[in-house]
């Protein structure tokens, strides 16, 4: 094989593309991975999961120290100051460490990285518009599209990436906004809204849907909303934003509420109304790839597109836009290429909102089971009745387990509370292994841990809860 010939060319080095590339190399393929950005790791590492979690962590620590949350522990702080520059620099350093880590992983696994825009050129060819100028043509037996997604906006709202910006803008505000208006009360709105609220901003969330987090189990969403309101996040539900107008440092946001036209003024606006599949400059249409009207690439159960030899995974195909979903699809796609049984279990993909409390969803919600007419039993247990949660001062929250009424198989696993993201791992493993609620109830959980809340919720499914 010449230097430009590969078994696999991956376009996009996000969590889907880079993990797929490494797995393919492990399977013995000669692999190239192209990304238009200099830093590898995609949205997730550069401007998504990692920087947002770094800021969520720092802002929570600041909030605990600055707003007297440590008083109950007997810790009195005389003066707490925010050094926003240092907080942002810490986040940037973590991003640099992780993105250069991906470059290191490519080297270790023999994946060749190309920096430039990748374009499908037909007959197993991909051109790379090299960053330094010029074009290189690569040929491949298989091409994996992992070009991810981009933020969107809504009609009437034009981004200037300063006063009116998206999630990337909100990861780097140079000062704490006085009043941040968030358009969209979904995952990004809640996570980044929480960051700036904790740092002292007034935050108002304008959400189109009348219900809060409609895809989350209702019991869980209700508790989460109560906690967010207690933290001072303000919500206007069921409103339609119609436009924004920037004047100096102020932004006026227009919206319709119950048929009335209203406005709200802030100094920054975060547009968090969803993301769109990214096929810009990819040549997807010319290559004949089947896409829906929103540009989402269509694939079969094994991530094959309609064009032989071209596969797609991650945010650019249907399904939840999650890093771990993209990763697992990347692995499954290349394993299938290698003749192995690649597979993703979509019933066991955790969805987490990393606010405080965190919100975790695995499998079906109670609403979904009802709608599908599936008979179920449920068990719940509150954080309040758990010794470790009391010791931590983290008594808000609950675990809710939904199991099939006849087989006891766990169908849904939901948490609102501290460390819900980590607790969700047990639910994902349980669902992956087709565990019953009885299996969880009979597994020994260390004392005192938050994981005992899971055991008690599982016991509650059978009406045998102990500690309440
Ligand atoms: P991406 O990560 O988007 O990567 C695609 C890559 O392809 C990019 O690097 C892009 O530069 C490159 N590319 C695109 N077109 C081309 C081309 N033509 N040629 C060359 N390169 C190209 N998910 C979670 O699971 N947990 C979280 O906590 C989380 N937090 C998030 C926070 C924020 C603020 C945002 C915005 C997203 C968050 N997400 C989170 C979502 C997560 O980032 C995405 O689901 C994930 O990155 C998708 O991975 P991907 O590999 O499909 O695409
Ligand atoms: P989202 O779909 O979670 O939320 C968008 C919200 O905006 C929805 O509630 C929607 O009803 C609302 N909306 C849409 N149009 C509106 C309008 N005109 N006016 C007011 N509200 C409007 O999308 P997001 O928060 O932008 O996040 C994008 C993607 O990134 C999501 O799919 C998410 O899965 C992913 N992400 C994941 C995480 C995580 O896993 N923790 C974190 C951030 C982002």
Keywords:
468 residues, alpha/beta, FAD/NAD(P)-binding domain, Enolase-like, domain 1, 3 domains, five-stranded mixed barrel, five-stranded parallel sheet, 21 strands, 32% helix, globular, binds flavin-adenine dinucleotide, binds nicotinamide-adenine-dinucleotide
Structure characterization notes:
The chain is α/β, with parallel strands linked by helices and 468 residues long. It folds into 3 domains: 5-151 and 276-344, FAD/NAD(P)-binding domain, CATH 3.50.50.60; 164-273, FAD/NAD(P)-binding domain (3-Layer(bba) Sandwich); 348-461, FAD/NAD-linked reductase, C-terminal dimerisation domain (Enolase-like, domain 1, 2-Layer Sandwich). The chain is built from 13 helices and 21 strands. It has helices at residues 15-26, 42-47, 49-66, 84-109, 167-170, 187-198, 218-230, 323-337, 366-372, 387-392, 420-432, 437-442, 451-461; strands spanning 5-11, 31-35, 112-122, 125-130, 135-145, 149-151, 164-165, 179-183, 202-206, 234-236, 239-247, 250-257, 260-266, 268-271, 275-277, 310-312, 351-353, 358-363, 376-382, 397-404, 410-417. The chain has a 5-stranded mixed beta barrel with strand order 1-2-3-4-5. A 5-stranded parallel β-sheet has the order 7-14-8-9-10. The chain has a 5-stranded antiparallel β-sheet with strand order 17-18-21-20-19, sandwiched between helices. A hairpin with a 5-residue loop joins β20 (397-404) and β21. α3 (49-66) runs parallel beside α6 (187-198). The radius of gyration is 24 Å and the shape is globular. Bound molecules: flavin-adenine dinucleotide (FAD) and nicotinamide-adenine-dinucleotide. Nicotinamide-adenine-dinucleotide (NAD) binds at residues 154, 183-189, 191, 206-209, 240-241, 272-275, 320-322, 352-354.
